[in-house]
Amino acid sequence: MKRLLAVAAGAVALAGAGIAVAAQADAATLASNWYASAPYLMPFDNSPPDPIEVMNATGQKAFQLAFILAPNGGGCTPTWDGTRPVADDTAAAALIGKIRDNGGDVSVSIGGYGGTKLGQTCGTPEATAAAYQQVVTKYGLKAMDFDLEEPEYENTAAVHNEIGAAKILQRNNPGLYISITTAGTSAGTGWFGTQMLNDAKAQGFTPANYSIMPFDGGFNGGGAQVSALEAFHTILMNTFGWDSATAYAHEGISQMNGRSDAGEYFRQADFQATLDYALSHKLARYTNWSVNRDRQCADPNQSTTSGTCSSVPQTPWEFTKFSARFAGATPPTTPPSSSPSPSSPPTGSCAVPAWSATAVYTQGNQASQNGHKYTAKWWTQGDSPATHSGQWDVWTDNGNC
After folding, report:
1. What is the mean pLDDT of residues 288-293?
2. Which candidate, 45, 234, 333, 361, has a CA 20 to 30 Å from the CA of 133?
3. What are the catalytic residues?
């Protein structure tokens, strides 16, 4: 559902290709709410951002690195994206060490959309767990996410192997935070998602949370997502016999910021709506796909979905700040250097800086021209407020200074 746009980009600014970092660097001691808030980050594709820059700008401390798969040629050994054997890895280890050195930590996600999953190739829950244990041991993990999607999602035996492996890992690694992520529908989740829950019940497995992905299914904003969460809440109660509070305490949401693969739009107001719901109902997890996409495209209103930007007007890392708030942090304000820097001084009695034809303005930025104050509705450059605000509807006229 959410991995259709991987763009090979190499290891970019992850950690410098030649930097050697101990694979089992000590993880920071983070509360579970940070693993519950960790947004997805692809370390090798989709133009990976510098996680330290994101941490400094948002207050976010944890990231969900994706994805661990079976080798593209088959077999039961873990790889990054089917091509990079975990046993030989130094790049992801360096990235993890860099994040930990700055007071953060990571969870690692297995599965995702596309590719061959270890549950499909390892044959048994025990063999699948042994493969994942290599990942836990290599990186000293305190958290792992099982992202069960197509085509594995529809393979009963493979899902059984994944759930069984998660149970074994939970038993053999006390305190390991395990999340299960699966498809969301307007009914909460579909037939395959319900079967997965039934399998978990039969195996006697309870993770930290079950999270649905309410996007790519005809959703229209935050209200539709909240409705799906309520429906999924009922499914959890009915499946496991939980009371309402217990079900909420094991429920989570995994979103897609900006434009989805199916052309849905989830803007900042939608994230605020789902965050309000998650906090008020004490949900167990709040995450999104992805940090790679949490920045504005050159055309912020493009009609295509990108793996490297959101396709909606935004400031950098704006959606990640919602994750930090869920974890209980107060994100830092945008530093002055990231604001437009018009070259001309304020006009007349206006306290708002004068509009500059060369400055880039994003949603909420203000400028003055001809004695009026204006607020940008979205990304704009070179559109004069006084001349074009009515024609192009880029600027809101706030009246005289």
Report:
1. 98
2. 45
3. 149
